[in-house]
Design brief:
With about 250 residues, the protein is an alpha/beta fold. It folds into two domains: about 180 residues, P-loop containing nucleotide triphosphate hydrolases (Rossmann fold, 3-Layer(aba) Sandwich); about 70 residues, no CATH class. Helix content is about 30%, strand content about 20%. The chain is built from eight helices and ten strands. The strands form two sheets. Strands 6-7-8-3-9-10 form a six-stranded mixed sheet, sandwiched between helices. A four-stranded antiparallel sheet has the order 2-1-4-5, covered by helices on one side. Strand 7, helix 6 and strand 8 form a beta-alpha-beta unit. The longest helix is centred in the last third of the chain and has 16 residues. The protein is globular. The N and C termini lie far apart (about 65 Å). It binds adenosine-5'-diphosphate. Adenosine-5'-diphosphate binds next to helix 1.
Length: about 250
């Protein structure tokens, strides 16, 4: 679903690569957290997927599409196949909640009838049907992020990527947004989320990939926890006594 093979990218003027030989395979329907310190390369990796930036070398295949062969004029079309969620929501301020979602579908070429059918369903999914006529500035941050998620899943993308979607939200709202992403994942969408939020990563126990200095230094495929470096994850402490220990306690008559 998401495949990067030996991807390297150095921005012009930088001494070090932002991504340095990154290889990664994310299967359909996975939920993956991408973590790492500031400057580790997370946003650059996301930009490789959206084709906002191109690698210097390496291969990127997203949903079966080899990005080398996506021509410049076809990039908007390609991007519409992805759901993309940003930390600052990027809603249109002069459009209502309904219109923000409807417009994305209109741009994607959906008919008026389909749009009228789809938008209420998507707003219902994100729990905002009763706010459809409001403008973004009349909503709380978490609600604005829900609109942004509604807009990005309305076209039912197979892949949703979110770059720090909860960075501007409080703890409770963050949990709500992550639960919403989990629900969307349960419906079959592959999800890749970058975050600095240790507790949501540890609570969800999904796959966790750590980037450090442009390299993948840790890839915990299951039950992942928040880790910023390569040190192995400690297995849980064993509390059972060994048989040898137990034997010593047996009294011989
Ligand atoms: P993260 O998202 O993990 O904070 P980034 O992908 O933004 O990391 O950055 C990785 C590295 O690339 C950093 O050293 C950063 O300074 C550099 N970088 C990012 N964007 C640019 C850019 N547009 N021009 C030059 N250097 C950049």
């Amino acid at each position: 679903m998401i495949l990067l093979d030996n991807v390297t990218k150095t921005y012009p003027g930088d001494a070090h690569p932002a991504l340095d030989g990154v290889s990664l395979h994310i299967e359909p329907n996975e939920f993956v957290f991408l973590v790492g310190k500031s400057g580790a390369g997370k946003s650059t990796l996301m930009k490789m997927i959206t084709k906002e930036e191109n690698p210097d070398s390496g291969k990127i295949i997203i949903g079966g599409i080899d990005l080398d062969y996506v021509k410049k004029r076809n990039i908007p079309n390609y991007r519409r196949r992805l759901g993309v969620v940003f930390q600052d929501f990027k809603l249109l301020p002069r459009r209502t909640v309904y219109e923000n979602v409807a417009l994305a579908l209109e741009i994607a070429g959906m008919s008026g009838r389909e749009i009228r059918n789809t938008v209420p369903k998507v707003l219902e999914l994100v729990g905002l049907l009763d706010q459809a006529k409001k403008f973004p500035n009349q909503l709380a941050g978490g609600q604005q992020q829900r609109v942004s998620i509604a807009r990005s899943v309305a076209r039912q993308p197979k892949i949703l990527i979110a770059d720090e979607p909860t960075a501007n939200l409080d703890k409770l709202t963050t949990e709500e947004i992550i639960n919403l992403l989990k629900k969307i994942n349960d419906f079959g969408t592959t999800i890749l989320v970058t975050t600095h939020n240790e507790s949501i990563v540890n609570n969800l126990q999904k796959r966790v990939i750590t980037l450090k200095d442009g390299r993948i230094v840790n890839d915990q495929k299951v039950n992942g926890i928040y880790k910023l470096d390569a040190t192995p994850v400690q297995p849980p402490q064993r509390t059972l006594q060994t048989p040898g220990h137990a034997l010593k306690k047996v009294k011989v008559a």
